[in-house]
Each structure stands twice: as C-alpha cells, then as structure tokens.
Amino acid sequence: MPDPIIRDAVPGDAAAIAAIYAHHVRHGTATFDIDPPAADAWAAKIAGIAGRNSPFIVAMMDGAVVGYAYAAQFRDRPAYAGTCENSIYVAADQVGRGLGAALLTALVAKAADAGFGQMIAVIGGAEPASVAVHARCGFVEAGRLRNVGRKFGRLLDTVYMQRDLQGC
Predict the structure, then answer these.
(1) What's the structural domain count of the chain?
(2) Which CATH number goes with the domain that contains 135?
(3) I want to staple 100 with a disulfide (CB 3.0 to 4.6 A). Which of 69, 124, 133, 158 is the partner?
C-alpha cells in the first residue's frame, strides 16, 4: 500500500469525516456516541480546533479522505492547557493497513509543535486495536475505568493511555 498523504483538515472534509465516524458510532465501541453528528457539526469542529491552534489532520488515499485525527485540550480548565486528548478514526475498509499509526505519529508531532506537553488517549470499549496502535506509538496505560459505558447492551471499560510529547 502506498503511503497516505497526511494534511491539515479543512471544512470541506467534513462530509467524509462524518461518514467515517458514523460507521464507528453505529458498529463499534471505540466511541460511546450513540447518534453520529452531521457533517455541519464536523465542519464547525474542524474550524474550532484549528482556531485554537490545535491539530486536526486527515489521511488521503487516491484523492479520498480515509482517516482523520485531532488533538484538543484534555479538559477545559487553564491548568490543563499543556495536555491534549487525541481522537483517531480510520475508514472501515482501510482498517489494519497502518493508517492509524501514520495518523497518530503525525498528530503527536503536530501536537508537540502546538505546545502540548502530554497527550492522553481515552479509548472507549478498551478497543484492543486502538490500545495496540497507541502502545506502538509510545503510549503507556495510565488507568482503566471499569464498566463506565453501555453500548449494544454491554457494559464497557475505558482505557486511558498517555504519552510525553517533550522532545518530539
């Protein structure tokens, strides 16, 4: 597989991002959302994250958006200004091809450049593939919240992973 082109997201990517995320909302447990946001909500999110000088990127293959990732301040309090939380999703037909790792690697560098010192991954459903890609990219488990989400009739854990961005 050729390397993806990774670039900053623009509001015009919102429909593709909405479609990728909607699949994961409807079929997976990595997100605890039940109803997928519409494309206009994604356009606003792209603009909002970029407006705060935080990274929102997409992976392109053959001219199409096949994955996205963004980092935003972990919590909305001044003391957390140096810590971000990531979010990464790959199109269902592209899973297992290394796109998640490519996106996460690029996101880590961009978050460090944006001034973040720590990155947190909040992994819904303790999804093994997400835990594995984060571990490959230097994240370590920082904690687990047991049975905190309910989706598809199951109680689910959330795993917190963390990576120091200093020296990236």
Answers:
(1) 1
(2) 3.40.630.30
(3) 133
| Percent of the chain with pLDDT strictly greater than 70 | 98
The sign one gets for the Cα dihedral 84, 85, 90, 95 is positive
Q: How far apart are CA 36 and CA 15, in angstroms?
A: 12
Residues in Cβ contact with 129 at an 8 Å cutoff, skipping those fewer than 6 apart: 95, 96, 100
What digits encode the pLDDT tens for the residues 47-104?
999 999 999 999 999 999 999 999 999 999 999 999 999 999 999 999 988 999 999 9
Q: Where are the alpha helices (DSSP H) in 28-68?
A: 39-51
CA dihedral 150, 151, 157, 159 (to 10 degrees): -130
Where do we find the tokens 């999110």? Answer: 45
CB–CB of 126/159 below 8 Å?
yes
Region for 110 from its dihedrals, namely left if φ exceeds 0, alpha if ψ lies in -120 to 50, beta otherwise: alpha
